[in-house]
C-alpha cells in the first residue's frame, strides 16, 4: 500500500496530485537538480514493488529482499542506489517484550523509497517532523536516510532503557530474601537482548563508515550527523552488552542462592526432626518393660515424662534457633 | 558416475552426443568463446577423476581432494581454475538430525566440473532450474558457481530454521513444570549446531571476497549476486550463533531447574516425614508404662489418641500445604 | 552556571572583568595569537549553553550532547573544535560504591569550554593547580585538555585501588571458614567494575591516538604527555580486567564452598540422627513384650539399659568425631 | 647420532662414501647448482651439533634451540637459512594418550639438516618415500621441508581422528544410564587437546605465509603444496576446537546428570524410608497401653496388624513406583 | 643507591675512579664513539634520580615513572632514549608463591641506566656475566638491554615451570579419592598466573617489534637476539594460558567431585539409617500389646527376635554393600 508520495524542492514539500496508488507509484516525477521524490509504502504487494522497481530502476535482488520481512540489517549499494535494511524495535510494556519490525529503504540521487513491514516506527510521523526541519531535508535523500536512522536508533535507546529497568527488577528479585524462580525471567531477557543485538550490531559498521565520510554519497556535513547515529548505536550496544553481562552474573548469583536456600532448608528440616525424634526416644525409654523403673511408679511420673519431652524439645528449639538453623 | 554433460552456448544448452560415460568424460568439447561445458559427476571412481583431470588439466592436489569426501569448505585457486568445496546440509525430520554431504567444483574459463559426494542437494534439479534462467547462465561458469552456492546456502537457511524450531521445543521443555532431562537433547543440538558452523564459517571469507569483486574472475554484476550469497551465509551464521547462545542459557536454566526441583522434593519429603513422625511420638507416649496415666483409663482413650494423631497429622498437612512445602 | 572565565597569556592568567554570568559567557575575549580563553560551566541551563555555543561557534550536535549528562566517553572533532566527553569516577567509602559524573569539553584553537555535570572532580581545583604549572599551560588548550584528562584518569586509578581492596575483602570472606553469602557482594562489585570499564574503555583508543601524535592538534611534546595518560588508562583497564577475572574465580570458589558446607552439614546432621536413633532401637527392644527377657528382671536392668544407650550414643559420637563428620 | 647423509642431484640420491659419522657430518659435499645435501641426525650430542653448525654456517641461537627438545613450533629465518621447529604427535592406543616428539630442520639453499628428538615420526621412512617422488625432490630443500611438514601434519590428523573416537566414548558414557565418573576422563582429554593445540596453532601462521607464496624461498608451485599443508593444519585445528567445545558441553551435561541422579537417589531413599516408617507408626499404635483397645483382644488381631503393616507398606510401594520415585 | 658505574669500550670494562656515589652518579664520563657508560641503581632516592636525570638529560615523565615501583611493563621512547619497564618474577618455594620486582632502564646512545626496585633478579651478577661475553657487549647499550631482557625472561620460564609443578599437584589432589578442598589452592594459583600474565603480556608487542627490526635502534643482528627473547616470552605466555585453562577445567572437575561425594555420602547415610530403622520396626512389632502373639510366649522368643533384627540388619548391610551404597 502506498502511504505517501511527495516531491521535495529546496527542503519544502511540493504537493503531488492525489491520484490513486497505482498512478502515483508508477509515475516518476520529473525533478529539478537537487529535488527528490519520497515514496512511502507499507506491506507492499509484489505487484506494487514490481511497479516501483521499474519506475526507479531498482536492482532485482534488492527488490526481492525488500519484499521479504526477515532480512538482517544491512547497507548495500546497487549501482547508484543504496539499499538499507533497518530493524525497528519497540518495547511493549504490557508483555515486557521487545517487538520487531522492519524498514527497507532505497536511496537514490533524486528519490527515496521507504518500505515498512509490520508495525513499528511511525514513518508518516517521521515525515511530518522532517518536513518541519528544512535544514535536514535540504541534504536531500541522505538527509531522509539520516532522519529515519536517527529515529530508529532513538527507539533502540528506549528499548535499552526499558531492558535496564527489567534487569534491575530481576536483580532485585534475585537478591530478595523471597524464594523466586528467576531463571525463566533471565532467559527471556537474554533472548530479548539477543534480539536487540541482532538489530544493532550489523548496523554499526556501515554507520561508522557513513560517519567517517568514506561513503561517496556522504558529504562532510552529513557525516557529522551520521556520527551522531553511530554514537548512539555504540551506546546502545554497550548498554546491551553490559546488561547481558549483568544477567549472566545475576544468574550465577541465582544459582548460588538456590544452593544456599537448599542448605537452609536442610538445616531447618533437620532441626525440626531433632525436636520430634529426641522426645520419641524418651517415650521409648519409658515404654521399656523393666521390672524396676522407679519413675514409672512416681505419682507425677507421667507429667514429669511429658515435661521432660517438652523441655528437651524446647531446649533443642532454642539451641537450633541460636545457632541459626531455625 | 558421470551424471550429465552438456555444452552451454549463450545461456542455452547444446545437446551433446549421448555416448557412454567414458567417452563423454574424456572428450573435451571444443568451445566458441563464451561457451562452456558442464560435467556433473556423482561419487566418482579414481579412474573417472583421473580421466577428467586429464581432459581439463586439473591440478593433482585438487583432484586428490575432490576424490575425498571429508574436506573442509574452501575456495582454492590452482592456476586458472577455481576449486571449490561446499558442504551440503539438510535436516532429516524423522531423526531431528542434520545430515551432511559434499560438493566439489572445478570452475575454469570454459568448463565447470561438479563432483557430488553422498546424498544432499539435487544437482540435476539445480541444473534444470538454471537452464530456465538464461540471464544467469550467460555469466558462464561463475554463473553456475553462483547458482549452486545459492542453492546450497538456501539449504543452510532451511536447516537453521529447523534448528530454531528444535531450540524452541527444548526451551519449552526446560521451562515446563514437567521434570525433563533436557541435557542430552541440548547436547545433541549443540553438536548439530557445531556441524552447521563448520560448514558455514569457512565459506564466509571467500564469499565476501567474491562479493567485494576482488576476485579476478568476478565481474561487478556477478559480485552483486555473490553478495546475496554472502549475505545469506552471514544470516545463517548469526542465527546459528544466536541458537548456540540460547542453548547455553537454556542449559544453565535447566541446571537451576534441577536444583529447584531437588529443593522442592526435599521439602515435600520432609513434610511427609513430619506427618508420620509426630503421630509416632504420640503413640510412643501412650506406650509408656507409667502407673498413673489417666488417658489410658478413659473409656474413649483409644479413639481419642487415634483422633489426636489424625488431627495432628492433618494440621501438619495443612501447615505444610499453606507454606508451599507440599 | 558559569563558574570561572579567564584569559591565559603565555601560561599566565589574565584577570577578566568580574561581571555577571551572562555578560561573561557571551563575550568572547579578543585574543593575541597563542592566548586562549577558558570558561568553566557547571550543570548549565539550555540558555547558557546556547549563549556559549553562539560565542564560540560550536556545532549544534555537540552542544546537544553537552547538555545531556548521559553520554558515553568519546573524542569527536567538529570542524576545528574537539568535543571531549569524560566520565569522572570516584569512590565513596561509606557506601563502598563507585559514583560517576561527567565532564564535557570543547577544545578550540584559542578557547576551552569545560562543562561539568553532577559531582565529581573539582575542576576549580584543577584550574588552580594548572595555573601553577606554566609549562603545561603554555601548550595552550591542548595543555588544559591533558591536565584534565590526567586528573580524571588519576581518579580512575584511585577507584581501581579502592576496588582492589574490596576484592581482597571478598576474597578473604569467601575463603574464611565463616558461612558468608558473598554472592550479592560479588555481584555489586562486578556491577561497579562494569561501570568503571564503561568509563575507561572508550577513552583508550582516542588517548592512544593522541599519544601517537597522529592527531593534528597534538605536537610531539604534547603527545608524550598524552602517552602518560594513555599508559595510566591502560593500567587501570588491566587492573579492572584482572579484578573481574578474580571475582569470577572467587564466585566459583564461593559456589564450591556452599556445596562443601552443605555436605558437611549433611554429615553432621546424619551423625546427630544416628546418635538418637540407635538408642531408640535399644529402647524399642526392651519395650518388647516377650515372656522371657532376662534383662527385664535384673535388679539393675533399667540403669543397665540407660547406660547401654548412653554408651552406644557416646561411642557413635566418638566414631563420627574421629571420622570428621562432627 | 648421524642417521643418514646423502646428496640429491636432479631429484635422485647420489651415494656418499659410507665413512664414520664424524667424517660424514663434518664434510660438506660440493654441490652443482640445484643439488643439495640432506643430513639426518637423531638426539645429537652438543659436539655433533657444533660440527654441523660449523659445516653449514648455522646461527648459534638456532643451534642452541636445536639442541633443546622443548621448543615451541616456529619458523625462523637466520640469514639465508630457515630454522623450522615441528612438534610430532602420535597416539598411543594402549594408554589412550597423545605422545609428543620434536623435529628441528635447517633448510638452506643447498642443504637440509633434520634433527629429531625422541620418538615420533620415522624420518628414514619419510626419506625413502620421498626418494621415490622425484617431482617433489626436484624442488630441492623446500621440497624436503614440504614432504616432512606434510607427513607431520598427516600424523596430526590421525591424532585428531583418535581423539574424536575418545570424545565419542566419553559422550556415550556421559549419557549412558550407568553412573560413571567422567570428569577425570574429560579432564585428561582436554589436557591432550591442549597439547595438540600447542603443536598445531603456532604453525598455522607460517604455513599460511608459505601457502600465499609471500616467503622468498617459496616458488608458486611450492606454495600450492604448502597450501595443502596449511589446509590440513586448519582442518586439524577446527576438529580440535570442535572436540574441545563438545567436551565442555559434555562436562556440563555430566554435572547435570550428577544432580539428576542425586535427586533420583533422594526420592528412592525417601520412598524406602516411608515404607518402613509408616508400619512403625502402626506398631507404635498397637503398643499403646489404653485399657480399651478392641483390636488387641481380637483372636486374629496380631495377624491383622501384621497384614495391615504389610498392606500399607505395599500400597506405599505401589504408589511410589507409579509416581516414579522407585 | 648507586651500585655500579662503569665505562665499556669495545666490549671491555674500563674501571672508573671508585669515588663516592654522588660524584659517580653525577659525572658523565666522556665517551669515544661506540663506548658507553652503564650505571646501576637500586631503590634510588628522589635526589639520586634527579641527579642522574640531569646528567643524562632524561625526560621528567620517564624519571617520575622510574621512581615509582608500580609501573606496568612497557617500552617507551623519549627523544633518543628508550625507557623500559620490566617486571621481574621469581618463585619462592617455601611459600609456593610468585614474587615480583621491577627493573627500569634508560637506554641511550652511549649510556644505560638500570634502576632496580625491590628484590628480584641479581643485576650485578648479570653485569659480571655480560662482561664475559664481549660479542654481546659490543652491540652497545642495546646489547645490555638484550642481556637483561633475556635474563628476566629466563626467570619467567622458571616461574612458569614451577607453576606447572603446582598445577600438577592440584590436578593430582583434585582427582585423588581423598576429600580435599582444592578451591582455595586453585584460586591462589589463578591469581599468581594473572600476576605472571600481567608481567608477560605487555612486553610481547615491543619485543616482537624489536625482533622484527622495525625499531630504529635495532640492527639486524640485534633483532635476531630479540627474536629469541620474543620467542621465550611467547612460550611463557602459552604455558601460562595453558595452565589457566587446565586450572579452570580442574576446578570444574573439583565441583563435579564435590557433587559426586555428596551423593555417595547421602547413599551411605541412607543405607546406615535403613540398617537401624528396620530392626526398630521389628522391635515395635513385638512391643505391640495384642492378647494373642504366639512369638511372645516362645521360650526362645526373645533371642529369636534379636536374631531376626541382627539378621535383617546384616542382610541390609550386605545388600547395600553389594549395590555400592556402603
TrEMBL record, chains A, B, C, D, E:
The chain crosses the membrane at residues 269-288, 300-320. The keyword Transmembrane applies. It is a multi-pass membrane protein. It comes from the Bacteria. The keyword tRNA processing does not apply. One of its GO terms (cellular component) is plasma membrane. GO terms for molecular function: cobalt ion binding; cobalt ion transmembrane transporter activity; magnesium ion binding; magnesium ion transmembrane transporter activity. NCBIfam families: corA. PANTHER family: CORA FAMILY METAL ION TRANSPORTER (EUROFUNG). This is Magnesium transport protein CorA.
Amino acid at each position: 500500500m502506498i502511504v505517501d508520495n511527495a516531491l521535495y524542492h529546496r527542503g519544502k514539500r511540493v504537493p503531488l496530485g492525489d491520484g490513486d496508488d497505482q498512478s502515483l507509484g508508477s509515475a516518476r516525477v520529473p525533478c529539478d537538480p537537487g529535488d527528490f521524490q519520497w515514496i512511502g509504502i507499507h506491506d507492499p504487494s509484489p505487484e506494487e514493488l514490481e511497479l516501483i522497481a521499474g519506475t526507479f530502476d531498482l536492482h532485482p535482488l534488492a527488490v526481492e529482499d525488500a519484499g521479504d520481512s526477515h532480512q538482517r540489517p544491512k547497507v548495500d549499494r546497487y549501482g547508484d542506489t543504496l539499499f538499507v535494511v533497518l530493524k525497528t524495535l519497540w518495547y511493549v510494556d504490557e508483555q515486557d517484550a521487545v517487538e520487531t519490525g522492519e524498514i527497507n529503504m532505497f536511496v537514490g540521487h533524486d528519490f527515496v523509497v521507504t518500505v515498512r513491514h509490520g508495525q513499528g516506527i511511525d514513518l508518516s510521523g517521521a515525515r511530518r517532523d522532517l518536513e518541519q526541519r528544512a535544514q535536514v531535508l535540504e541534504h536531500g535523500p541522505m538527509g531522509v536516510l539520516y532522519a529515519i536512522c536517527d529515529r530508529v536508533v532513538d527507539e533502540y535507546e528506549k528499548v535499552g532503557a526499558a531492558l535496564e529497568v527489567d534487569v534491575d527488577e530481576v536483580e532485585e528479585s534475585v537478591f530478595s530474601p523471597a524464594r523466586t524462580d528467576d531463571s525463566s525471567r533471565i532467559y527471556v531477557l537474554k533472548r530479548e537482548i539477543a534480539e536487540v543485538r541482532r538489530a544493532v550490531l550489523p548496523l554499526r559498521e556501515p554507520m561508522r563508515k557513513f560517519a567517517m565520510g568514506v561513503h561517496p554519497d556522504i558529504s562532510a556535513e552529513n557525516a557529522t550527523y551520521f556520527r551522531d547515529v553511530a554514537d548512539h548505536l555504540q551506546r546502545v550496544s554497550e548498554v546491551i552488552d553490559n546488561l547481558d553481562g549483568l544477567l549472566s552474573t545475576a544468574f550465577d548469583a541465582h544459582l548460588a542462592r538456590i544452593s544456599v536456600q537448599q542448605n537452609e532448608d536442610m538445616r531447618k528440616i533437620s532441626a525440626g526432626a531433632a525436636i520430634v525424634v529426641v522426645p520419641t526416644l524418651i517415650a521409648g525409654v519409658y515404654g521399656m518393660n523393666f521390672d524396676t523403673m522407679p519413675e514409672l511408679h512416681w505419682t507425677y511420673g507421667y507429667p514429669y515424662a511429658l515435661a521432660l519431652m517438652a523441655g528437651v524439645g524446647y531446649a533443642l528449639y532454642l539451641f537450633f534457633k541460636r545457632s541459626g538453623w531455625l
